[in-house]
Design brief:
Length: 266
């Protein structure tokens, strides 16, 4: 009989959480997932076998209840968003402090985004090689840009990026205190795993929900083995032919094994 993994998703009804509730149990039947979401939140899961153990709660008004929900968990995945930068950072403080308040803090995965490094690439600058990539004019590129390293710190250019940088910094603080934490720089993830050509360059940043679950699973397994490089931030991108982000680092460090490629869906 496989081990049982007690997982809490904070904001798990969205596109990313729906994928984790679907694909983590397919990767390992031991995952038992509870999702806490705002009352009335829409469940984005489209597969019949997605786990649907839900709790309706506004965690920002129920700090004690949040701590109780985290008690006894093996893994917490923080996906929720709200309000402006100040409100978002306050919620981030609340979540990480609730994890730290546990007698044995569980591993936490904090949601970052490829947009945490928006200062390093631009699909909308006509003078940039990334504009040419976004236009899929690959034969015009003589010098393909080096993939953006997962090791680079955040280069935020707006409040969305800054809220993600704040999460990344919290993960580093958790690691410095000896706890397991990874910041996931999610790529383009949607409920139906579509490659939306209407968004410039989406085929490059696209991530299938299964690959997102594979990254989370790989990190969690390393945590259980005691070999997690805690405090790291990884791009969560599928194995896309025209990927601009470094996914070799998580391959090497945690054994990330993506199995989808955007080109197969175009």
């Amino acid at each position: 009989m496989s081990a049982q993994y007690n997982v809490l998703l904070i904001g798990g009804k969205g596109n990313i959480g729906a994928g984790l509730r679907t694909y983590l149990p397919r990767l390992d039947k031991g995952y038992r997932i509870v999702s806490v979401d705002l009352p009335g939140a829409t469940d984005r899961a489209v597969e019949a076998d997605a786990q649907r153990d839900f709790i309706d709660l506004d965690i920002t008004t129920s700090a004690d209840a949040l701590q109780d929900l985290i008690a006894g968990r093996d893994l917490v995945v923080y996906l929720a968003r709200k309000g402006n930068l100040e409100a978002m950072n306050q919620m981030t403080d609340l979540v990480f402090e609730a994890v730290l308040a546990q007698e044995k803090p569980p591993m936490i995965i904090g949601s970052s985004s490829v947009h945490a490094v928006d200062g390093l690439y631009n699909f909308r600058d006509e003078k940039s090689v990334y504009w040419t990539i976004a236009d899929r004019k690959f034969d015009q590129i003589s010098d393909w840009p080096k993939r953006i390293s997962a090791a680079l710190p955040a280069h935020a250019i707006n409040d969305y990026g800054r809220e993600k940088e704040y999460v990344e910094n919290w993960c580093k603080r958790m690691a410095d205190q000896g706890h397991g934490a990874i910041a996931t720089r999610w790529g383009g993830i949607n409920a139906n795993n579509d490659v939306a050509l209407s968004e410039r360059g989406y085929f490059s940043v696209w991530c299938h929900q299964e690959d997102a679950a594979r990254l989370v699973h790989a990190c969690f397994q390393r945590y259980l083995q005691g070999t997690l490089p805690s405090g790291a931030h990884y791009f969560v991108i599928s194995d896309n032919t025209y990927n601009i982000f470094d996914i070799e680092t998580p391959r090497q460090e945690v054994g990330y094994d993506p199995v989808h490629n955007a080109e197969a869906y175009l």
